[in-house]
Amino acid sequence: MIKRSILVCCMMLSVLFTAVGQGADNTTLKLSFEDAVNMALERNRTLQNASLDVKKAEAAKWEAIATMLPQVSGSLSYSSNLNYAMELMGQKITMPASGQLGVQAAMAVSAAQIISTQIGKISIDMANIAKSQSEQEITNQVRILYYSALVSEQTQELLSKNLESLTKLYEYSQNAVNVGAAEQVDADQIMVQVATMETTLSSSKRSMEMVYNSMRLFLNIDVDTEIVLTQGIDDLLSIPNAMALISEDLVLENNYTYQLVNQSTKLTKKQVDLAGWAYAPSLSAFYQYTGKKNFGEARFNMTIPHTIGISIAVPIFSSGQRFKALQGAKLEYQKQQNTLADTEMSLKIQHRQLKYNLTSAMERLETQKKNVEVSQRVFDNISLKYEHGYSSSMDVTTSGTNLIAAQSSYVQALLEFVNAQIELEKLLNK
Fold first, then answer.
1. Which pLDDT does position 4 carry in this prediction?
2. How far is Cα 11 from Cα 210, in angstroms, rounded to an integer?
């Protein structure tokens, strides 16, 4: 009996621990860089709105096409003259109640409608380009946040290591003061350095939390979800890829900004065509069926059941309205051509500048990396000398300050390198 009770308790505890473990998994999200990008593209509301804009443009295009297709309408009516009788050639004729069914089909075609469908096609292309540009922006933002989080974690590791070393030095220095082998001012100087390192570490932790909150916003996940990044800086940074990127030529047709301006230029050209075709005639045709049913005694029915017609409308005189509209459209097209030319020149200059920026950022990153390594060795060496009495507390403080500055410069250089690479990839659409 006791064994059976123990077995039941073990089973219940097992189920309980499993449930707790599953709950923990539900609040922890492990993400590789690719996972983070895919989740952002799937759940980001800005991109969802861009997809809706594409559907909206497609609906507008089909709305323009529908105006050239037959439009059918129907009507059903009932009328009564309340037994009114009229005299006709000495005879009274009672006007009966009647019901009437009508069906009308009409179709109108003009050059302006055809141009409108072409404008709709350009609008769809622009909406798709804007959607792709939004995907690119979101990917880049997630990439910056992912790198920033990794850099923050790496910074915290370095600061924690430095804090641990300084804390040991402070304890050693205070012990030396207690036995009369050192002055209190020496221990106080190191204590200030410890406090400075703790403040810097706390600030780094707050900055990292801000980065993770921004990532939660982009991924559209709950604020209490813990994010665990499964890739490190070394897995994602690639100097050879950056060097290959610098040698890439700019292809304007691949750039989303150029594509949008180019499509906008085509759109203004279609507006010129639309204004020009306002001088052209329009064609319309219709067919109408009318069926009438008299309720009561009726001797005749004069309703014509079938009617068909066709017409051509020719614009003759508009007091210069159409001419001015065409002139305004042409002027707008010239402005858009100038904008396109400026965009081409701007992108070419930007390409050259971004290559310089990436080259400089890459060189600065290498320099700051070496600076951190040297500063770390200096700090470790002076700390060791201080323990053996060959350096002063001022030397320890100075080397610690230099190490913090070097690590801060390295972090800044790393983020500048990432941003420079992203900007060039964005321009080249890589």
1. 44
2. 42
